[in-house]
């Protein structure tokens, strides 16, 4: 009986795979005794004495479940999982709100619908959280202009 472990190690190095992926045909062990070079190991693979198992992939199960959940009907309160701010955190909500308000302010300033002083007044109000939404911002612009 030959030492199959050393032959498996050599085969794994020749074919650049892990030792566990190398499978040796038990009927052709006598041919394996003569294999002492890398070339002879390659020839044994061609003859079918040494086989390489296919690489094991990663399961797509979780991805499939998430896709099913996202495409299904009913995404309202009863179907939502997790805590209130687990989907979008309070900070992310604040960032989205302030960015949209600043974008609107810059647009109004570029169109010259508001003055520079009013722009900065509203900008600071937006940053401090006094403005609830873009619609509230629009109302404040109308209020300050009149």
Give an overview in words:
- With 146 residues, this protein is mainly alpha-helical.
- It folds into two domains: 4-52, 50s Ribosomal Protein L19e, Chain O, domain 1; 90-145, Non-ribosomal Peptide Synthetase Peptidyl Carrier Protein, Chain A (Orthogonal Bundle).
- Helix content is 58%, strand content 4%.
- The chain contains seven helices and two strands, in the order H-E-H-H-E-H-H-H-H.
- A two-stranded antiparallel sheet has the order 1-2.
- The longest helix has 21 residues, at 90-110.
- It is rod-shaped.
- The N and C termini lie far apart (99 Å).
- The model has no long low-confidence stretch (mean pLDDT 89).
Secondary-structure blueprint:
Elements: H1 4-15, E1 22-24, H2 29-34, H3 38-47, E2 50-52, H4 61-71, H5 90-110, H6 116-128, H7 134-145
Antiparallel strand pairs: 1-2
End-to-end separation in angstroms reads 99 Å
Q: What strand order characterises the main sheet?
A: 1-2
Q: What is the residue-averaged pLDDT? A: 89
User: What general form does the structure show?
Assistant: rod-shaped
The CATH topology label of the largest domain is Non-ribosomal Peptide Synthetase Peptidyl Carrier Protein, Chain A
Quick one: how many beta strands? 2
Give the ordered list of helices and strands.
Answer: HEHHEHHHH
Biggest sheet record: 2 strands, antiparallel
Low-confidence stretches: none
Q: Percentage of helical residues?
A: 55-70%
SSE-based structural type: mainly alpha
Q: How many separate structural domains?
A: 2
**CATH architectural category of the largest domain:** Orthogonal Bundle
**Distinct helical segment count:** 7
User: Regarding CATH, which class of the largest domain?
Assistant: Mainly Alpha
């Amino acid at each position: 009986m030959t030492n199959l472990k050393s032959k498996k190690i050599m085969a794994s190095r020749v074919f650049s795979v892990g030792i566990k992926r190398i499978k040796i045909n038990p009927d052709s062990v006598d041919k394996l005794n003569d294999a002492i070079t890398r070339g002879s190991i390659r020839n044994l693979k061609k003859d079918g004495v040494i086989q390489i198992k296919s690489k094991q992939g990663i399961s797509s199960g979780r991805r499939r479940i998430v896709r099913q959940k996202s495409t299904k009907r009913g995404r309202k309160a009863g179907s939502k999982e997790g805590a209130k701010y687990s989907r979008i955190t309070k900070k992310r909500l604040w960032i989205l709100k302030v960015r949209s308000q600043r974008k609107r302010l810059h647009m109004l300033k570029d169109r010259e619908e508001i003055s520079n002083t009013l722009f900065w007044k509203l900008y600071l109000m937006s940053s401090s959280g006094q403005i609830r939404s873009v619609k509230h911002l629009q109302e404040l612009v109308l209020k300050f202009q009149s």
